[in-house]
Each structure stands twice: as structure tokens, then as C-alpha cells.
Amino acid sequence: xxxxxxxxxxxxxxxxxxxxxxxxxxxxxxxxxxxxxxxxxxxxxxxxxxxxxxxxxxxxxxxxxxxxxxxxxxxxxxxxxxxxxxxxxxxxxxxxxxxxxxxxxxxxxxxxxxxxxxxxxxxxxxxxxxxxxxxxxxxxxxxxxxxxxxxxxxxxxxx
Length: 159
Prior knowledge:
Layout: H1 10-20, H2 30-41, H3 46-56, H4 60-69, E1 81-86, H5 89-93, H6 96-107, E2 120-125, E3 137-139, E4 142-144, H7 152-157
Parallel strand pairs: 1-2
Antiparallel strand pairs: 1-3, 3-4
Helix pairs in contact: 1-2, 2-3, 3-4
């Protein structure tokens, strides 16, 4: 295992130190620090939780609580493309469960899993804020509304 993967790099350290200037206490910057690391590595390992907690001078357990509370902080490796399907009540009523099943069948994974080629990870999300356009999915940062099952294979080919 590469030891550098378990250590924050100079750019991550610099960004976290810069971000610290915008907050009154180090605990307040926790999410931003986690996002900085995740943006460069795709997820945040246990070892990096330890590293970040040392820099912020907060306990690992405090940082772990924050990291696991927010579903947008990934605590295990994810695929290159992250598909989030909305499982809110409105999306469910508009067929999100069928969308989820179609995605699982095409990708041959279940919710929370990543395809063998690391191309896609499928995750639920409680709401994408587009209830008037349900059902809704998001792939990376792009939102797709009024999703039809027949459109899913075409949509996945774009990625």
C-alpha cells in the first residue's frame, strides 16, 4: 500500500489551512476539510479521517460522526460516476422504485454497490429538490427529471 495515500498531500493541506481562516473554530471547518479531501481522492479513508482530525485538533470520533452523518461524504471507494436516485415519497409515487430496479438490472449491482469496472456507484438520496419533475435521478452533478425507464439505457451510455 502506498503510504502517501494515507497522508494528506501538500495541496490538500494548503486548502484546509486556507479554509480554516474562514471559520472561528476548527470543528466548523470539518465538512469543508472532508470535501477537500474527497474532491481529490473520491472518498475519505479511515487513515485520512485521522490525518484531518489532527490538523483540526478535534477527535477522530467527532470527525467520523460528521463524515457518516452527511451522505455526500463517501467513506468507501465509489465509482467514477455516482448515480443518485431520489427515493422521496413523491418520486416513489411517480415510479422511482421501477427506476431503481432498472438501474440495478442494467448495472448488475444493488444500492450502495459499485460496478466491477468502477464505472458506476448507485446510491439513494432522500430528495433532489425537484418533486414537481419526479422521478428524478442525478449522475455526478447533472440532474435528470421526469425519467422514463426506457430512457435509462440511453442515459447510461452517455457516461
